[in-house]
Specification:
This is Dehydrogenase. By secondary structure, the chain is an alpha/beta fold. The protein has two domains: 97 residues, NAD(P)-binding Rossmann-like Domain (Rossmann fold), CATH 3.40.50; 114 residues, N-(1-d-carboxylethyl)-l-norvaline Dehydrogenase, domain 2, CATH 1.10.1040. Helix content is 52%, strand content 10%. The strands form two sheets. It has a five-stranded mixed sheet. A two-stranded parallel sheet has the order 1-2. Strand 4, helix 5 and strand 5 form a beta-alpha-beta unit. The relative contact order is 0.08.
C-alpha cells in the first residue's frame, strides 16, 4: 500500500519503534516518514490505515482514539462486532470499515470493500491505483460481507473435497470433473483441482477461520452447513497430519489421506 501511495506523490507516515529490524529497514528503504509513535502518526495524518494483527486491532484503536485528526480506516481481518468495538474508540467519528477480499499484490488489484459514512473518503485512494468498492452503509457491513463470502467459498471447497475424494476412490474423478465442467463452465476443472489442493495445505487456517465465521453467523441464524464445513476441514487436518511434502497432483494428496 505504502509503495503505491508514495509513487503517487503521497506522504506516508509510520512508526516502527518496537518493530523488527526488517520492518524498520523496509520502511526506511521505501522512503516513508518516521514518526515518534502511532499517536504522532494519528495526529499528523489526513487518513490513518490500521493494518495490524487481529489480536491488537482494538488495543491500537483505543490507544490512538483521542488523537485521530482525519479518517480512520480499519482494514484488519476481524469480525464485524470487533470492528465496531475498535472504531467506537475513534472520538472524531470519522471511521471506515474495510475488508480486503484476497491477497495484497504489488499492483493492488485486490478488491477492498468499504462501508461507513466516510467510506467514500477512503475510496478516493482509487485515484492512486487502489481497487476500493463502497458496499453497505453501516460500519461492520464490509467485514460482514467478507465473512459471508468466506462461509460460501469455504463451504464449496469442503463439498468439492468430499465429492472428489469419493469419486477418486471409485475411479470416476476424471469423468466427474468433465461432467461438472459442462454445467459449471470452462475452467472449472482447473479451479476445482486448485481448491482441493489448497484445502489440503491450508486446512488448519481455514478451520480456525470457520470458527470465527460460525460465531458471526450465529448472531443471525443457527448455522448447519457451516458446522459441516468446519468438521470437514478438521478431518482433513487429521487425515494429513504427517504430510511432509507439497503435491501438485490431488491424487497424490488423496492417496496420503487416512481415515476418511
Amino acid at each position: 500500500m505504502a509503495l503505491k501511495l508514495l509513487d503517487g506523490g503521497v506522504e506516508v507516515l509510520t512508526a516502527t519503534r518496537g518493530r523488527s529490524e526488517r520492518t524498520r529497514r523496509l520502511a526506511h528503504d521505501l522512503g516513508v516518514t518516521e514518526c515518534d509513535d502511532i499517536v504522532d502518526v494519528s495526529r499528523r495524518s489526513d487518513m490513518v490505515i490500521s493494518a495490524v494483527t487481529p489480536g491488537v486491532a482494538v488495543k491500537v484503536a483505543r490507544e490512538v482514539g483521542d488523537h485521530v485528526r482525519g479518517v480512520y480506516v480499519d482494514v484488519n481481518n476481524i469480525a464485524p462486532s470487533t470492528v465496531k468495538k475498535a472504531l467506537s474508540y475513534i472520538m472524531n467519528g470519522k471511521v471506515v470499515d474495510a475488508a480486503i477480499m484476497g491477497r495484497i499484490s504489488r499492483d493492488l488489484g485486490v478488491k477492498i470493500l468499504a462501508s461507513g459514512d466516510y467510506a467514500h473518503e477512503f475510496a478516493r485512494l482509487n485515484d492512486y491505483g487502489f481497487n476500493i468498492e463502497v458496499r453497505g452503509v453501516e460500519v461492520g457491513d464490509a467485514s460482514a460481507l467478507k465473512m459471508l463470502r468466506s462461509s460460501y467459498t469455504k463451504g464449496v471447497s469442503a463439498l468439492l473435497w468430499e465429492t472428489l475424494l469419493a469419486a477418486y476412490r471409485m475411479g470416476l474423478d476424471g469423468d466427474l470433473l468433465e461432467i461438472l465442467e459442462e454445467t459449471e463452465g470452462a475452467g472449472f476443472r482447473e479451479r476445482a483441482i486448485s481448491r482441493v489442493i489448497s484445502s489440503a495445505y491450508h486446512s488448519q487456517r481455514r478451520y480456525e477461520e470457520m470458527k470465527d465465521v460460525e460465531s458471526f453467523l450465529s448472531e443471525n441464524i443457527t448455522p448447519i452447513m457451516l458446522k459441516c464445513t468446519s468438521k470437514t476441514f478438521k478431518r482433513i487436518i487429521r487425515g494429513l497430519d504427517d504430510i511432509g511434502m507439497v503435491f501438485e497432483d490431488y491424487g497424490r494428496i488423496f492417496d496420503h489421506v487416512k481415515g476418511l
